Amino acid sequence: MNVDLTLTVSRLWFIERNLREPSKSPMPHLCQTPCQRRVRAGTGAAPIVAGMSDSAIEATGLRKAFGDKTVLDGVDLTVRTGTVFSLLGPNGAGKTTTVNILTTLIKPDAGTVRVAGHDIAGAAKAVRRSIGVTGQFAAVDELLTGRENLQLMTDLSGGRRTVGGLLERFDLIEAADKPAATYSGGMRRKLDLAMTLVGDPRIIFLDEPTTGLDPRSRRTMWDIIRDLVAGGVTIFLTTQYLEEADQLADRIAVLDQGRLVAEGTAGELKRRLPGTHVRLRFTAAEPLDAAARLFDGSTTDAEALTLRVPSDGGTASLHALLNRLDEYSLHAEEFSVHTPDLDDVFLALTGHTTKVDAK
Amino acid sequence: MSAKSHSAVMLRRNLRHITRNPTSIFNAVLMPIVMMLMFVYVFGDAFDVGVDYIDYATPGLMLLAVCYGLGAVATSVNSDMTKGIINRFKVMDVSRGAVLNGHVIASVLTNVIAITALVGVAFLLGFDPAAGPLDWLGVAGMIVLLGFAAGWITVALGLAAKSPETAGMAAVPLVMLPFFSSAIVPAEKMGQGVRQFAEYQPFTPIIETLRGLLDGAPQTGDLIAAIAWCVGITIVGYLWASSTFTKRA
Fold first, then answer.
1. Where is the ABC transporter domain (chain A) (predicted)?
2. What digits encode the pLDDT tens for the residues A295-351?
3. Using CA atoms, how far apart are residues B130 and B125, in angstroms rounded to an integer?
4. Which residues of A fall within a CB distance of 8 Å from B92?
5. Residues of B with CB below 8 A from A128's CB?
6. Minimal CB count within 10 Å: which of A34, A58, A88, A95?
7. How far A333 CA sits from the closest chain B CA (Å)?
8. At residue A132, what are phi and psi to the nearest 5 degrees?
9. Hey, are the CB atoms on B88 and A143 less than 8 Å from each other?
């Protein structure tokens, strides 16, 4: 993944800053760095975007309170056209409120939002014509069949896609004439997303699209999302599953108590944090102790005969480490690099884990 | 797309819902007929109303037929609001009125079907009204007017309720109200208090108007009171529903 140097340096700065003051400082908004330029790995159809005019979604200074409770406290975000942006956070962080504001369902107390180039306050209708939304709870009509649900969307929107084509694409043909109430959770989600696609939106909001799905349905949903991205659609995804953001998103913003506390690619977020280490397993205690003396800051686990050596995980430092072992004729039985998962990232950025009392 | 064609799409959706839900068909169409059979065959002889009981009770049961369908309407409006589909409609820029219009018009159509069936059964049981074609037209008009009034107030109740279950309960008073009117027995046969309530509640002039029209001799006073009540309730229901909808959705 190519990341502009300026961006990397500035991100390093903000993550360090956040680590020093974990709970308070919202991070400066990096997407506004004008030189940002990136290529998405993985899909061949990835567009290369540069410059501010390619933003599908731009929000600045979003604030929202419900009564005394501040839900969003100054959120800035920019989503580039054709990319997947994931808003990651625990329950109650403000993810759904953000989606509701961006999709014109509720008005922010302060801040401006442009979606597909249209202002949500002044041109809500134009915004609505450009977007599709799949909410947290599958918004299908349970009494209607899958086909009738899609037909309803076509009738209401003058949809450009055919009902039959969508049923086929989402593997719903067999169930097409059964009421949606009889669908499994995974099928319901698929139908929901198919309904969202009727109007062929170029920007799609997915609010926790896989919450409550079994692992297999989750994989199916991920594949569908990847297909959409390959077709050039911009996706704004919220999730409380760290793995999901990791799997799908080009950029991840971490939302905590109404503020963005970090933003970057999954790899960037993980790499820049302490905790990445190399694990070496030896066959006896002797080489283990010998190796432990070679590396500053290493910790041993005598029982498992393993040595943890802090490392940035980069090839240069790994090379140096292996050379040093070689130099002293030490042979490790097993060698692995451990990167913290996004849960660790979340803990480091916010000072608390993602576990929040259920609402 | 215009609000009118959106309303038509929504109406089609609501009518489909009714046909898919056997309980709502039973409540709206069969229940009034069951009530009619019960009152005419089981209780009817016990009431001395001065005329053939079927002739007396049919107008009241017509009103009961309107009310019996309302629980399902309130529940279905509330489900739309609480199950997330309303957000989909809003993001699709479906006019807000279309959603509510669909529910109200579907409710009125259900009423018309239920009452047609009820009157059919009444004829089989020996119902013998003196009404001429113009009177029948008046009956139809009165029922549609009542249907809109009951429909809008029920939609408002459904919107104001927290869950589909409580929405169903909110319509119960509307189902009970006809019993405290001259629908089943004349108001003068009721006890103190209930009688005054029965005389002045909105359903009594509506029933008396229907009774008058079916007898071929409508009373102007009842007619004016009935129309005034219906229009008043429609306006209150409409305004209440619209403001609740804006607040909630």
1. 57-282
2. 888 888 888 888 888 887 788 888 999 999 999 988 888 988 877 666 666 667 766
3. 16
4. 128, 153, 156-157, 199
5. 91-93
6. A34
7. 56
8. -130, 145
9. no
| Nearest CB to B91 within list A133, A141, A155 | A133
Q: Are residues A262 and A303 in the same domain?
A: no
Each residue of A270-300: pLDDT tens digit? 766 666 788 899 998 889 999 988 888 888 8
Report the pLDDT value the prediction gives residue B150, as an integer from 0 to 100: 94
Whole domain around residue A26: which residue ranges?
5-271
- Domain identity same for A231 and A282: no
Domain membership of residue A343 (yes or no) is: no
Distance from CA of A138 to the nearest CA of B (A): 7
User: What is the structure's pLDDT at A30?
Assistant: 36
Contacts of A241 (CB under 8 A, 6+ apart): A210, A211
Whether pLDDT at A177 is above 70 = yes
- On whether the CB atoms of residues B157 and B171 are closer than 8 A, the answer is yes
Q: Which of A271, A296, A319 is the last residue of a domain?
A: A271
Rounded Cα distance, A319 and A324, in Å: 9
Kindly state the average pLDDT of the residues A135-159.
Answer: 86
Q: Are residues A227 and A311 in the same domain?
A: no
- Residue pLDDT, tens place only, B162-207: 988 899 888 888 888 888 887 777 777 777 878 888 888 888 899 9
| A105 in contact with chain B, both atoms CB, cutoff 8 A | yes
- A255, A98 Cβ separation under 8 angstroms: yes
Closest-CA distance, A262 to chain B, in angstroms, reads 29
CA distance B86 to chain A (A): 8
Q: pLDDT tens digits, residue range A122-145?
A: 888 899 889 999 887 778 998 999
The whole-model pTM stands at: 0.75
Q: What is the pLDDT of residue A42?
A: 38
* Tally of domains within chain A: 2
Type of residue numbered B181: S
- Asked if residues A345 and A262 have their Cβ atoms less than 8 Å apart, the reply is yes
Residue A138 in contact with partner chain B when CB distance is under 8 A: yes
Task: Nearest chain A residue to B17 by CA: give it.
Answer: A143
Whole domain around residue B15: which residue ranges? Answer: 3-248
Residues of chain B with pLDDT under 70: 1-3, 44-45, 249
A232 and A281, same domain (yes or no):
no
Which tokens is B3 given?
A: 């609000």
Nearest CA in chain B to A178: B20
B163 Cα distance to chain centroid: 22
Strand A110-115 to A234-239 pairing: unpaired
Say if CB A113 and CB A59 are below 8 A apart: yes
- State the count of interchain CB pairs (< 8 A) between A and B: 59
Residue A230: partners with Cβ closer than 8 Å, 6 or more residues away: A43, A44, A45
